[in-house]
């Protein structure tokens, strides 16, 4: 009887221990399950959000870096093109300036050659006229000389009307009348040398002494052309009949 009671007590003790152990495991399983359901999803979501945020930051950084590099490349290309354009324009300006300088040098050389040739021709013509003038000795007028009636006109020392030699206006005898219409204080006339020889000093009523130093294509016979200062004087003189006393 006592043994039976003892066995039953042992059985109850064993069952109690098993029940306690089972309850403890069940409690632990419940706690672990609760932590897995309540805490881990939130943490995972937070981590996912943080990861996405970090990825967005990295993406923006990458885009900003790509944009910066593209801008640097664009600016470098613009700078290169601008430098090339500046060099090209500078080369064009230098080439143009060189061409203009060479053209100007050619023009100046041609002008100098033309002037030298004109001087040479003028010198030759002057020498020829001086040789002709040297044969025409100045004959002083005599109050008892021969008197003729002549028709007179007037002309000027304008180079446009008479032509010039090296910029100077010369008479048929080579006398330079560019700056003066007088020769040793006497007026100068153009004559027909067959009527009044070159170099002859004559007396013209109303004018005084004049010397025959020039000729003209239309001065034929008893016609003389009086040298005056201006075109207005020549126009005012017109055509006049004058009395000339020869030596």
Write up what this structure looks like.
The chain is α+β, with helices and mostly antiparallel strands. It has a domain at 147-245: Barwin-like endoglucanases (Beta Barrel), CATH 2.40.40. 58% of the residues lie in helices and 16% in strands. It contains 4 helices and 7 strands, in the order ααβαβββββαβ. It has helices at 2-38, 40-134, 159-162, 231-237; strands spanning 147-156, 182-183, 186-190, 201-204, 208-214, 223-228, 240-245. Strands 1-6-3-5-4-7 form a 6-stranded mixed β-barrel. β2 and β3 (186-190) form a beta hairpin. It starts with a helix and ends with a strand. Residues 18-22, 24-36 and 132-143 have low confidence and may be disordered.
What is the class of the domain at 147-245 in the CATH system?
Mainly Beta
Tell me roughly what share of residues is in helical segments: 55-70%
Overall strand count: 7
* Average residue pLDDT: 82
Largest sheet, described in full?
6 strands, mixed, barrel
Q: Round the Cα radius of gyration to an integer and report it.
A: 64 Å
The best one-word shape is: rod-shaped
Name of the CATH architecture of the domain at 147-245: Beta Barrel
Q: Could you give the order of the helices and strands?
A: HHEHEEEEEHE
Structural class: alpha+beta
Kindly, what is the distance between the CA atoms of the first and last residues, rounded to a whole number of angstroms?
207 Å
Instruction: Kindly report the name of the CATH homologous superfamily of the domain at 147-245.
Output: RlpA-like domain
Lateral arrangement of strands in the main beta sheet: 1-6-3-5-4-7
Percent of residues in β-strands: 15-25%
Kindly identify the CATH topology of the domain at 147-245: Barwin-like endoglucanases
Helical segment tally? 4
């Amino acid at each position: 009887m006592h043994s039976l009671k003892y066995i039953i007590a042992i059985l109850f003790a064993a069952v109690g221990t098993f029940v306690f152990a089972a309850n403890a495991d069940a409690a632990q399983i419940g706690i672990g399950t609760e932590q897995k359901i309540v805490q881990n999803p939130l943490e995972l979501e937070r981590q996912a959000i943080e990861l996405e945020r970090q990825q967005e930051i990295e993406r923006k950084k990458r885009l900003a870096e790509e944009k910066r590099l593209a801008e640097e490349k664009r600016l470098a290309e613009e700078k290169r093109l601008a430098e090339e354009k500046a060099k090209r324009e500078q080369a064009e300006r230098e080439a143009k300036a060189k061409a203009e300088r060479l053209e100007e040098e050619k023009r100046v050389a041609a002008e100098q050659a033309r002037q030298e040739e004109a001087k040479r021709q003028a010198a030759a013509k002057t020498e020829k006229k001086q040789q002709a003038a040297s044969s025409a000795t100045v004959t002083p007028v005599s109050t008892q000389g021969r008197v003729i009636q002549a028709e007179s006109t007037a002309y000027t020392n304008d180079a446009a009307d008479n032509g010039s030699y090296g910029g100077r206006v010369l008479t048929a005898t080579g006398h330079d009348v560019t700056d003066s219409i007088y020769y040793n204080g006497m007026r100068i006339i153009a004559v027909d040398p067959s009527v009044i020889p070159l170099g002859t000093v004559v007396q013209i009523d109303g004018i005084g002494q004049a010397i025959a130093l020039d000729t003209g294509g239309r001065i034929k016979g008893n016609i003389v052309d009086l040298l005056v200062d201006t075109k207005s004087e020549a126009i005012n003189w017109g055509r006049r009949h004058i009395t000339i006393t020869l030596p």
